[in-house]
Recover the amino acids of this structure.
């Protein structure tokens, strides 16, 4: 599915009154930041979503609130505010806004103080904390049902979240996550290491042309990337995509990539790992000593080939990236441009998952424009607790749709 320039604009742009931004705002809960970044009476944290700026903070008692970043008085940033007594106090004139989203003190208003406080138009938003993340509802309507995924029901060391801000459009981030075909090529160095240990990933290293099979699901779709794995066997990786930004990738524990649009050209990418049976082990996606900047971002840019090491590329690495496997994904995505033009692509059967994703998202935003309710917005039909990625070597005649329920 080659995307026209007009459809590319419709699919990728989210800021201002862009149709996709309005659709997302009125239909879905947004991950806003990670819980670990907010401490009681700690620093307010910046949040950017759909081209607008917000501030998140945790009050003295532990409750989290999210406001528009700028004070409704004279527009000073509340990132500068004092976090005290379950409230933010603007340092410009001392106006105070509590975690319930109300103005409670205006030192510069000596008369009719309480009545004046009630009239202050502070923009605050419904907030939830679950699965290691802080979530916000930005829509004007009543909030949709909260996405009760398996990981949002876990706490403590059973769930771990980290965040990185990427310098490219959110659609590029999701396309990388749903594209299983690139795994055998771009990540072959990592697969070779895994295969040396005798794991099922060795099959992905050997068969670089997976066959795709799809199954539509409420809220999205899932697909199997099927590879040969020796006589009479197949290695099957089942990836689940739940609109608009969740991708459940097969891994040793529950593993989700969530690609949230900060604006048209930057993406907040969340990694969430979880384990129903105990603590999340250290893995390729950890440890997260600095969860607000993990994995560390590529800083070299195009001039420095995004940090690629051409020397090790000649000697021992296919890609020249060795610090973290996500650097391979990010270098490729950033090299496409901050907002990729898809009208000149030349696709093949290995891109079927990407095509499926694009078609679903474009159909949905067009239905929203017509005043219809897209199926991906029918939250009550989505079996959230059952959604997860799967991977295994199975007999060639195995029905993966039945096997991986």
């Amino acid at each position: 599915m080659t995307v026209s320039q007009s459809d590319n604009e419709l699919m990728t742009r989210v800021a201002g009154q862009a149709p996709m931004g309005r659709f997302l705002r009125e239909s879905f809960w947004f991950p806003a930041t990670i819980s670990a970044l907010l401490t009681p009476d700690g620093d307010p944290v910046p949040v950017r979503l759909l081209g607008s700026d917000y501030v998140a903070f945790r009050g003295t008692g532990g409750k989290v609130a999210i406001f528009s970043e700028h004070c409704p008085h004279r527009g000073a940033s509340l990132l500068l505010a004092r976090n005290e007594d379950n409230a933010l106090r603007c340092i410009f004139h001392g106006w105070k806004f509590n975690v319930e989203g109300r103005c409670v003190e205006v030192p510069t208003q000596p008369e009719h103080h309480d009545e004046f406080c009630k009239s202050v138009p502070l923009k605050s938003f419904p907030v939830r904390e679950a699965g290691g993340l802080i979530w916000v509802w930005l829509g004007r309507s009543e909030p949709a049902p909260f996405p009760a995924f398996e990981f949002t029901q876990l706490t403590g060391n059973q769930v771990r979240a980290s965040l990185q801000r990427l310098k490219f459009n959110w659609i590029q981030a999701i396309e990388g996550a749903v594209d299983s075909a690139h795994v055998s090529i771009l990540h072959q160095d990592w697969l070779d290491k895994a295969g040396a240990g005798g794991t099922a990933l060795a099959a992905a290293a050997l068969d670089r042309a997976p066959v795709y099979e799809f199954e539509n699901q409420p809220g999205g779709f899932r697909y199997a990337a099927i590879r040969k794995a020796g006589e009479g066997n197949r290695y099957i990786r089942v990836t689940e995509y739940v609109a608009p930004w969740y991708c459940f990738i097969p891994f040793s524990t529950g593993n989700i990539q969530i690609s949230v649009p900060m604006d048209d050209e930057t993406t907040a990418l969340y990694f969430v790992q979880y384990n129903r049976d105990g603590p999340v082990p250290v893995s390729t996606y950890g440890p997260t000593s600095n969860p607000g900047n993990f994995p560390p971002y590529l800083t070299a840019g195009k001039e420095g080939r995004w940090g690629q090491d051409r020397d090790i590329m000649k000697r021992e690495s296919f890609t020249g990236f060795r610090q973290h496997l996500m650097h391979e994904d990010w270098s490729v995505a950033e090299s496409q441009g901050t907002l990729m033009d898809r009208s000149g692509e030349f696709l093949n059967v290995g891109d079927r998952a990407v095509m499926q994703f694009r078609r679903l998202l474009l159909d949905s935003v067009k239905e929203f424009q017509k005043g219809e309710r897209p199926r991906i917005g029918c939250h009550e039909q989505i079996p959230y607790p059952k959604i997860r990625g799967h991977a295994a070597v199975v007999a060639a005649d195995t029905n993966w749709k039945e096997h991986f329920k």
Remarks:
- DSSP finds eleven helices and 18 strands in the chain.
- Residues 352-369 form the longest helix (18 residues).
- The domain at 29-136 is CATH 2.102.10.10 (Rieske Iron-sulfur Protein).
